[in-house]
Amino acid sequence: MSTPLLVTIIILAVVLVAAVILYILGKRAQKKQDAQKEQIDAMKQTVSMLIIDKKRMRLKDANLPQAVIDQTPRLMRNAKLPIVKAKVGPQIISLVCEEKIFDSVPIKKEVKATVSGIYITEVRGLFGKNNPAPPKKKKFMQRVADMAKERGNAKQRKK
Known about the structure:
- The chain has 2 domains: 1-43; 45-125, CATH 2.40.50.
- The protein has helices spanning 3-43, 66-71, 74-77, 140-158; strands at 45-58, 80-88, 91-97, 110-116, 119-125.
- By secondary structure, it is an alpha+beta fold.
- It is flat, with a radius of gyration of 24 Å.
- A 5-stranded mixed beta barrel has the order 1-2-3-5-4.
- Strand 2 and strand 3 form a beta hairpin.
């Protein structure tokens, strides 16, 4: 066999083995995530709370109980999580919010939230309308494209 063919076969074999390993690890992670989702759904409660503040902060800086910090994996301790500071009854508590609803959580408003332990999974407004999340800032290239489109429309109107 020629050398380039042998190298190609070895590279394909390594890529195939890596793909199989990633597939197996992905299946295991999916099973773990499904089990965690079941636990969260089993423990959820609806609570009325006043949202004081929301930020993305490190776990250490979030004023969460020490038991929570000890149970998290080391790699996740430095990751920034969506943290919501809320007044539930007479207590002010820091809670971890689900990433997909973090932007829609209103600040300085009373809401009904579905909570599982220290994890907020859903938020519904209690009084008034929920303010939609502010529009995200456009990237530079998007702004340039919009300006070019506006200028093109202005030239067409003049003719």
